[in-house]
Write a structure and sequence with these properties.
Blueprint (H helix, E strand, L loop, with lengths): L6 H10 L4 H20 L1 H11 L7 H12 L6 H13 L6 E2 L19 E8 L8 E9 L8 E10 L11 E13 L5 E4 L10 E10 L3 E9 L3 E11 L8 H13 L29 E2 L2
Parallel strand pairs: 1-9, 5-10
Antiparallel strand pairs: 2-3, 2-9, 3-4, 4-5, 5-6, 6-7, 7-8, 8-9
Helix pairs in contact: 1-2, 2-3, 2-5, 3-4
Length: 293
């Protein structure tokens, strides 16, 4: 059994974790026990101290996401969950960041869910915080007819340890995977994943499929909300090919769909290009791909 954490240590860490004195007081008053358990847990301690350095600026959200990706065990952490639920969901020590997510104007009026089945690669992305990881291979399957959330996705991606490393260097990565399930709205391209538990900060994602060519590409714009951040958005271009190669007609169709969405800054030319050249299990002849977790 770990030794109890002295109250002074709690105060010192609490003063670093939140970004204002009132938030520090909130953590100490309401979540001291959860903070003590976090300090006694290796993964949670690393995660919390990483977040302590994220500050208040425009880069804070990206920093928070990177801390989670680098320090959260692949199968989760009860200590991290308990501390997050207490400070964010239960007592709002960290105020929710709210913004408006513009819903695209051109969601497909009809979509067969079977179009998603199998493996797809994210080969272009809009939001640099969520959409630009290397080696994003998402595998979709369909549940039984009548299942409320019938479309199931195993969303795998890889987090680079050193952001300055690039192919063909021998870069180290941390393997990540999340699972999502979606309900379809009236057989359209609107897919919803709502009603998630406190450990996932009650997140709700809405995907809007705005372009699709069978077995070639799917263009998805999304809006999301959770107890910490409501109104985040992004987009991904799925292709069956991990290289993302499309012919001229397909590129033109994707570019036109992005423009027609009516979302500021959503242009094909503005999207990042994840690097899928050295992904595990791809038969790559390039550098060794390190999976650390």
């Amino acid at each position: 059994m770990p030794s109890p954490v002295p109250p002074l240590s709690l105060l010192l860490l609490a003063s670093q974790l939140p970004r204002a004195a009132s938030q520090s007081a909130c953590v100490v008053e309401h979540c001291g026990a959860q903070l003590a358990r976090c300090l006694a847990d290796t993964a949670c301690r690393g995660w919390s101290l990483c977040n302590a350095g994220c500050g208040l600026g425009t880069e804070a959200l990206a920093c928070n996401q990177r801390c989670a990706d680098l320090h959260t065990p692949l199968r989760g952490s009860p200590a991290i969950d308990a501390f997050s639920i207490c400070t964010i969901s239960d007592h709002h020590c960290v105020p929710q960041r709210r913004q408006r997510c513009a819903v695209p104007r051109n969601t497909l009026p009809a979509l067969e869910l079977a179009a998603f089945e199998g493996d797809w690669w994210v080969t272009r992305g809009l939001n640099p915080i969520f959409d630009c990881f290397d080696c994003q291979r998402h595998t979709f399957s369909l549940g039984a007819a009548g299942e409320p959330k019938r479309l199931h996705g195993a969303l795998r991606y890889s987090v680079k340890r050193d952001l300055h490393c690039s192919f063909p260097q021998r870069c180290e990565y941390v393997r990540r995977e999340v699972n999502q399930s979606f309900a379809q709205s009236n057989a359209t391209g609107h897919l919803a994943n709502h009603g998630n538990p406190p450990a996932q900060l009650h997140y709700a994602d809405d995907w809007y499929v705005i372009a699709h060519r069978p077995e070639t590409y799917i263009l998805v714009y999304y809006c999301g909300c959770n107890d910490a951040d409501c109104g985040y958005s992004g987009a991904v271009l799925y292709t069956r090919s991990r290289s993302g190669a499309l012919d001229a007609a397909d590129k033109a169709a994707v570019a036109a769909a992005a423009r027609a969405a009516g979302v500021d800054g959503f242009e094909l030319s503005a999207l990042c290009t994840p690097d899928n050249r050295a992904c595990p299990g791809c038969g790559s002849t390039g550098p060794i791909f390190y999976v650390l977790k």
